[in-house]
Design brief:
With 99 residues, the chain is mainly α. It is built from 3 helices and no strands. The two termini are 35 Å apart.
Length: 99
């Protein structure tokens, strides 16, 4: 499906990427929680459980950030992103001269 509007493409990219990010984060988090419960929990005192779950969440957030960073870099090298998308944060003054 090809859209004519670069602004619409940008908005759709943001929404789809956010949704996919949430899905990937949920899968990774629950996978790591299961691995922790299976292998780590029997050897770690229970009072550290909450801190470990928060730590796992931070690890998942960092993994998805770096994963998407490298994915976008790879796509930007392969495709001309400016041809299909408007910048999310435009540089300089607006084109119509108003501020």
């Amino acid at each position: 499906m090809k859209f004519k509007s670069k602004r619409l493409n940008t908005i759709l990219l943001i929404f789809v990427a956010t949704f996919l990010n949430l899905v990937v984060m949920a899968i990774l988090y629950f996978g790591l929680v299961v691995l922790y419960g299976r292998f780590g929990a029997p050897h770690i005192p229970p009072e550290y459980g909450a801190a470990i779950l928060v730590g796992l969440f931070l690890v998942v957030a960092a993994l998805t950030y770096f994963g998407y960073y490298h994915l976008i870099r790879m796509l930007a090298l392969r495709y001309d992103m400016e041809r299909y998308f408007d910048p999310v944060f435009p540089k300089g003054k607006p084109k119509n001269g108003t501020q």
